[in-house]
Amino acid sequence: MTNSTSPLSPRKTPRQARSKATVHAILEAAARILETQGADAVTTNAVADRAGVSVGSLYQYFPSKEAIFAELIRQMRAQMRDDIFRAMDFVVGKSLSFAMARLVRAVIHHHVHRAHRADALEHLEAQLPPDPDSLTMMSQTRARLALCLTQHKVPQPEQAAGDILNLIIGMAHPALHGGETDFDSLARRIDPAVLGYLGRM
Amino acid sequence: MTNSTSPLSPRKTPRQARSKATVHAILEAAARILETQGADAVTTNAVADRAGVSVGSLYQYFPSKEAIFAELIRQMRAQMRDDIFRAMDFVVGKSLSFAMARLVRAVIHHHVHRAHRADALEHLEAQLPPDPDSLTMMSQTRARLALCLTQHKVPQPEQAAGDILNLIIGMAHPALHGGETDFDSLARRIDPAVLGYLGRM
DNA sequence: CCAAAATGTGAGCAATAGCTCATGTTCGAC
DNA sequence: GTCGAACATGAGCTATTGCTCACATTTTGG
Q1: Residues A99 and A31 in one domain
Q2: Is B40 near strand C, with its CB below 7 A from some atom of it?
Q3: Can you tell me which residue has its alpha carbon closest to the C1' of nucleotide D28?
Q4: What ranges are recorded for DNA binding (chains A, B) (predicted)?
Q5: A1 falls in which pLDDT band (50, 70, 90)?
């Protein structure tokens, strides 16, 4: 089965277990090289080497190096979306401040887990042509948060959802990248900013 | 005069007006290619071409492509520092909320002016070895803000300064990059978040 | 003026990248 | 078993990149 012709989508969908493992190994190898040696070190030969497969196999499933990055970014976005969905589901019926506190911690948790990878991938994303799938996932994430805000009568929930995500990520990401390890302290500093934004101090 | 041996510092300091113009043309060409065609399009030959000089001249003043990026980043950091210094100077003796409002607008103004360039440079910076000069300038920026916060009895002013800058940049940057053009509206949404962080709503 | 320093030139080298393809191997349906 | 499809291999082609160097031109101090 061949996939769409978009330059960022996978080339062929693996059908046997063996090829699924190959694809997984390629993605994991690319991510590890990216984390440990930087974007420039992620060459197709290096990825194939590290994955223990040949370049030919790599190009059976990814039409280009960029497609590998795009897939990793899609995985990251999907996980972030799912994390936030879970947090928002857990929080229905609770107070707005409780909901926001939970959101803050979900985002922090997401960034702590694989901080280096997320960081590098986000910088890469800016240099890649925009990927519709990634945009969709981010849109879904915002929409879910907006729904929660609507239920609490927050005005302009769509805009507020975007602002709040930017606020939380904007504060959490550099702090964690800068070596901050007291996640509770960080969360307790972000909380009042979010509530301040919402005018609910 | 030859400069330090650091891989990111310029190689030779221009002494005549003509070479100053050359250096300026190289930096401007690199920035324009970066903005319009992305990081991968910034090759030394392309930069030299666009600058109207030869590759040889380029390598007289920059030991590597990375050194060009590093210099552009330094310029950006210096301008941000100066913008914020001016804002903080203007605001001594005024109320904390007035000071923060001014800060918010200074950051927004800084990002509006050359949003594309700043964006691309920041993503590049993450992939370069850390540059001491840039770190120093960011440290100076934070310190100046911390001083202002100290005068308003804000506890932990150093940490708060970092948090507030991250908050403002984190909210402003994606919004502006996403095409937001109503800067006043944006500023008025960031203001309460900052005050919320400070516990001064 | 003139020599020395500063500046500028661009053909081309060495290295390396992304990627293809001819060929071989394994799997699964029948 | 058998045969076609799926999967895997890796030597090596093509293109490009960062960068050097031998040489030309301009500027400046005296």
Answers
A1: no
A2: no
A3: B16
A4: 43-62
A5: very low
Quickly count: other Cβ atoms within 10 Å of residue A29's Cβ.
21
Which segments within A37-111 are labelled E, that is strand?
A: none
Say whether residue B132 is in contact with chain A using an 8 A CB cutoff.
no
* Residues B183 and B99 placed together within one structural domain of the fold: yes
Write out B37-68 in H/E/C secondary structure: HCHHHCCHHHHHHHHCCCHHHHHHHCCCHHHH
Domain range for B143: 72-198
Torsion sign across C-alpha atoms B190, B136, A120, B115: positive
* pLDDT score at B15: 80
Amino acid identity, residue A22?
A: T
Residues shown for chain A: 201
Average pLDDT over every residue of A104-132: 94
Q: Is residue B99 part of a domain?
A: yes
Q: Are residues B111 and B167 in the same domain?
A: yes
Domain check: are A57 and A76 in the same one?
no
A31 and A116 assigned to the same domain: no
Interface test with B, best of A167, A185, A194 (most B CBs within 10 A): A167
- Is B57 within a domain? yes
Of A34-48, B11-25, B115-129, B187-201, the poorest mean pLDDT is in B11-25
